Prior knowledge:
Blueprint: H1 13-18, H2 23-38, H3 45-48, H4 52-61, H5 70-86, E1 91-94, H6 96-104, E2 120-124, E3 130-132, E4 141-154, E5 160-170, E6 180-188, H7 194-197, H8 213-216, E7 219-220, H9 224-240, E8 245-248, E9 267-270
Parallel strand pairs: 1-2, 1-9, 3-7
Antiparallel strand pairs: 2-4, 3-4, 4-5, 5-6, 8-9
Helix pairs in contact: 2-4, 4-5
Amino acid sequence: MTLSQPDRARLTPYELVFTAGDFEARIFPRIRSEAEAERIDPSLRERFDFLSTAADVVREVTPEDAPPDALDQYRALLFHAFRFWESGKRLYTLDSATARYLVEAAPNLDGWKFAIPGSSVYLQLPANLFWSSISPEAPPEPVDGVFVTLSDGTDSLGGLAHLLEVLLVLGIRRSRAGFSVIPLVSETGEGISEAWDAEGRPEGDFANALPGGDMAGLYSMLTAAEVLKLIGRAFWYIETFPEGLVGTPALAERAEGEEAPTSQLSHVRVTLAVTEDGTGE
Length: 281
């Protein structure tokens, strides 16, 4: 069966940046080889940034006139891209109905231990449904998705902790050469962190902040708590309702002249598989 275009993932930020030319085949194996030779764990962001190959790449791609905080954004993007590549490029796409269920039903995650399928995943959100901005002064942009990376590390007291690195990707559109990113970091453990349960905004989590957005049913994510809540609910859903997961094979080649370019990566569609009372069909 040939899938219709809406059933396929959109072109991902990973493909936009890292699959052109020989970058993927040339750079990422070198980073992994250096990490092995130097006995550095590249799954930890603070260790990854010390790899000379990674540092050279960041300096090479960062424009000379880039603002000071751009360097950290490029480092974060390269780190997540490497982990995504190393984990087998695991791509999940949320259908609109599933995303709305996760927001509106606010499922109870008590007792669930945070987990993702693999060590790194890109979770693509429905097009133009969620909006955010890189700063209070910046205009809102549609959220394409989030890179989510989980690794073992240490907490502030030196104890073992599961570190959650997140990179929110905004503003992917055909008329723009690049996109915006917002890096976040948190810790996970048994159950959901108290910070994830805190109210994101007084007006309510995911409350629309765009003029006219209420009529269109749009959501805004303006706090870290909202981002973490959506991620937690999404991966809880993926683990709890496997019957809602639909595997989609990779494309050998992309069709020419596509109005909205689609991803060539294999991916898993996350469809709605719950009833109104929150139970499985």
